[in-house]
Amino acid sequence: MIPQRHDTSRIGLLGGSFNPAHGGHREISLAALKALSLDAVWWLVSPGNPLKETGDYDYAPYPSRLSKARSVADHPRIVVSNFEDRKGLQYTVDTLEALSDLWPQIHFVWLMGADSLVDFHRWMNWRRIAGLVPLAVFNRPGYAEAALSSEAARELALFRVPSGRAADIVGAEPPVWTFVESTMNPASATAIRNRRKSATG
Description:
CATH class: Alpha Beta
Helix content: 25-40%
Largest sheet: 7 strands, parallel
CATH architecture: 3-Layer(aba) Sandwich
Low-confidence stretches: none
CATH topology: Rossmann fold
Number of helices: 9
Shape: globular
Strand content: 15-25%
Number of domains: 1
Distance between the termini: 41 Å
Radius of gyration: 16 Å
Order of helices and strands: EHEHEHHEHHEHHEEH
Number of strands: 7
Strand order of the largest sheet: 3-2-1-4-5-7-6
């Protein structure tokens, strides 16, 4: 799905290394489509995660991660994109600025799991990210308390919208965010990689 210049779609952005993509990514995306009244969700498959040391982090080859993500997504309104790889982008803030420059009329919203909100304050220019697009955070088992007491959540507390009105954040002036409690998929890319290592070791 490549937007046209006149397009005013509501697009959710789910970024990450997708190493590998799994059912949790899909559950968040389907929940976002419904809760936020989105037209589509784009999976932005990153070449690498700046918060993870590449020397200690086992990345599958990029084409393999992209292919696996497309297989897992398996939905007409979930688009798996190599935008960051094509544009040579590494940081979310740069990706959002590039997307906003290309499609200023699109209503983008950044999607993340609760585990990502725990560390959000460590992201490059995280306050700039929060000022660029609305944020929708989705629950993951065992992370809700840490996420909602995180540094970023505390700083952005006044801008939180109840999950019952989650769709209102799309197109709203940032900073604005919501926490969707209903998602509870326990899938973890780290756990999947560890199981694979155990099976082959």
